[in-house]
Write a structure and sequence with these properties.
By secondary structure, the chain is mostly helical. The protein contains 13 helices and no strands. Helix 3 packs across helix 12 and helix 7 packs across helix 9. The longest helix is centred in the middle third of the chain and has 32 residues.
Length: about 290
């Protein structure tokens, strides 16, 4: 009786020691993704830390200089004022039309071109050197030329946004297409599939989840060009509001515009991510 209870006690003690010896997962753990709940809480914590640092910076700034670093409350109040009193919604809609319209045209050109270059080596050799060279030309350098060609018109603004993303998107789609496993293509060819069927039914479905990731990246770049596109001759749009505010040192309006662009960018990314999950649920499961 005593020996059995003793062995049982030792077993319990060993189990307790075994549990206590399980290492706790560290915050900076390699190859350890956050769970869904952890991602939400950590995202909220990161946002709170950023806003706290912003408020601290405003608090530490001398009273005479706080107009150049307004608090979070002042910027949000200004954003509400712009919407309710200044018709800011019209400017937001106009900027969205420019971004999404130019990106749609860029995607219509870049996605098919990148897929064709990734599928056919000789076509890549013909086109890629020229496309690669255009990537090194900053889009802002085209502003004088676009003004000469189109004047301070809507076409010039959308052309600048188009040039800012199209050549990089071609290169990224090319990389996505070339990343498709050759075994898929070889198997389809072995079974007698035509080149058209291989491209449309094998390469495109395999590459498109990554292509949408590339589109998410490049439309974010498009948002960064918005203010540049709306600098010259723009009467509406978020960038135009920010530039007018800069003339009168209305820093709260400028920061409200920056905040709005950031929010629209995040919302755009989330919509494209949702589209990817809807169209390619198998890819989401594979990543998980």
């Amino acid at each position: 009786m005593d020996s059995s209870s003793g062995s049982s006690g030792r077993g319990n003690g060993q189990r307790r020691r075994g549990v206590s010896n399980v290492p706790r997962e560290r915050f900076f753990e390699l190859l350890s993704p956050a769970t869904g709940r952890q991602a939400v809480w950590l995202g909220m914590l990161g946002a709170a830390l950023f806003l706290g640092a912003w408020e601290l910076g405003n608090y530490l700034t001398p009273e005479s200089g706080r107009r150049f670093l307004p608090s979070v409350e002042e910027v949000l109040a200004r954003l509400i004022y712009l919407y309710t009193e200044k018709g800011f919604l019209t400017d937001v809609v106009q900027s969205c039309i420019r971004i999404f319209g130019s990106f749609f045209v860029a995607s219509l050109i870049a996605v098919p071109l990148g897929i064709l270059m990734g599928c056919f080596g000789k076509f890549k050799a013909l086109v890629n050197p020229t496309v690669s060279g255009w990537r090194y030309l900053p889009a802002a350098s085209f502003i004088p030329l676009l003004l000469v060609w189109f004047g301070p018109s809507e076409t010039a603004k959308m052309a600048l946004l188009f040039l800012g993303v199209v050549f990089f998107l071609v290169a990224m789609v090319l990389d996505n297409t070339e990343a498709v496993q050759r075994e898929y293509i070889e198997a389809a060819l072995t079974m007698g599939a035509s080149r058209t069927r291989v491209v449309l039914e094998v390469v495109v479905p395999a590459a498109f989840p990554a292509i949408i990731d590339s589109m998410r990246t490049m439309i974010a770049v498009g948002w960064t060009y918005l203010v540049i596109a709306e600098i010259v001759g723009a009467e509406d749009g978020i960038g135009a509001v920010m530039m007018r505010a800069g003339r009168f040192l209305h820093v709260d309006t400028i920061m409200a515009g920056i905040f709005m662009i950031g929010m629209l960018g995040v919302m755009t990314d989330q919509r494209l991510r949702g589209l990817q999950r809807l169209l390619f649920p198998w890819n989401v499961k594979r990543r998980a």
